[in-house]
């Protein structure tokens, strides 16, 4: 997906200049310009801040229009929607957080994600905050989760549940990939 082009399209649809969007999101208009030209990839947290300023969820941002009004109940791994454009690092050392959403969250009261954190990856230097609650269970690997002032390393089988309005961050500072299955209600990510 052309994240920069999509960001520019959304900004222009809302009648915002780069400067106005930057002021609303607490970023520089230079940063917005670089993102729109795909010369800089936003972290999950930065993109969330930008979309909150519009307002729009990550799910809506990455949503492909589903033409079928018929409800869909079953999904293959190829049906999941990728919500994370982030690249961290350079070249072969790049670590990309993957947030794959099951179905169209705008049609439901629950958002379910399959998250993959390669070694050295995280959700970004800014903490995430959004309405709702979220929970998750570590399936594989280790993940450091920060919620407010608390930091905890979770192992396979461990989980978390918290009010998403609390500042939070996910980071894999370990040598193996980490996989988490998470849910958020209402869908706000």
TrEMBL record:
It holds the Pfam family Cupin_2. Signal peptide: none annotated. Residues 7-61 form the HTH cro/C1-type domain. CDD domains: cupin_XRE_C, HTH_XRE. PROSITE patterns: HTH_CROC1. This is Cupin domain-containing protein. Keywords: DNA-binding. SMART domains: HTH_XRE.
């Amino acid at each position: 997906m052309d994240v920069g082009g999509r960001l520019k399209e959304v900004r222009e649809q809302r009648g915002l200049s780069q400067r106005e969007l930057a002021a609303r999101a607490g970023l520089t208009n230079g940063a917005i310009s670089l993102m729109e030209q795909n010369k800089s990839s936003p972290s999950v947290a930065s993109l969330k801040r930008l979309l909150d300023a519009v307002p729009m969820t990550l799910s809506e941002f990455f949503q492909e229009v589903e033409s079928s009004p018929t409800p869909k109940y079953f999904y293959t791994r190829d049906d999941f929607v990728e919500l994370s454009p982030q690249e961290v690092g350079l070249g072969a050392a790049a670590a990309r957080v993957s947030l794959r959403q099951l179905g169209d969250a705008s049609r439901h009261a629950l958002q379910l994600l399959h998250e993959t954190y390669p070694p050295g990856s995280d959700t970004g230097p800014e903490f995430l905050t959004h309405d709702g609650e979220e929970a998750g269970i570590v399936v594989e690997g280790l993940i450091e989760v920060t919620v407010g002032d608390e930091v905890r390393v979770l192992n396979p089988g461990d989980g978390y549940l918290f009010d998403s309005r609390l500042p939070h961050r996910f980071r894999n500072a370990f040598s193996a990939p980490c996989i988490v299955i998470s849910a958020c209600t209402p869908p706000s990510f």
